[in-house]
Fold:
Amino acid sequence: MIRLIDVVKEFDCKRKVRALDGINLSIDRGEMVALVGPSGSGKSTLLNLIGTLDRPTSGEIWLDGQNLSGLTDDELTRIRRDKIGFIFQFFNLLPSLTCVENVALPLHLRGWKKAQARARAEELLELVGLKHRLEHLPDELSGGERQRVAIARALSVYPPILLADEPTGNLDSKTGAEILDLIRDLHERLGATVLMVTHDAGVAASCERTITLRDGRLAGDEVRAARR
Structure:
């Protein structure tokens, strides 16, 4: 499902910074994987590359059997639109849109008819326990509810890959645990491949596999027995 071959990412600042240094990594379809490491280890950079939000300096990235090297920006946009769902720490909801409108937005961008997009958005909001919040604005929701809306939006096209960047990092411990349970439940029900950046050891321990980055290199890869 996800494969990286000798991936290097460098940034040209006042001096050249190598954020990722020769990453070789494979993640199978349906795995739920935690990506951990100290600040500056390259976690978010790696997530952005897998999510086609950035390009590697060198090396190859394969998603669902397709080599991303040499694809145009429009082709990468289509892959991102059709195959990848993103969950961010700070929700990234549009404040002027209701919950159902935020979730339906990616479907409108794909050309879905208004009634069809709304029906799917309502279905997903019910799936994440927010059927009673369809017409509320983000500012009228708690942090946990906003994250649930963000998760519903990420799932709008039932993407085979779900990328989460600190999805519980901006929440209190109780709400964070509820969001983690929700992500795990959706992973089991929908069969999506989940890659989650986290600083929380408890979140990492809940995943089937933990990959550790340090100084832009792989420093550990622990596989646990699948949860029942």
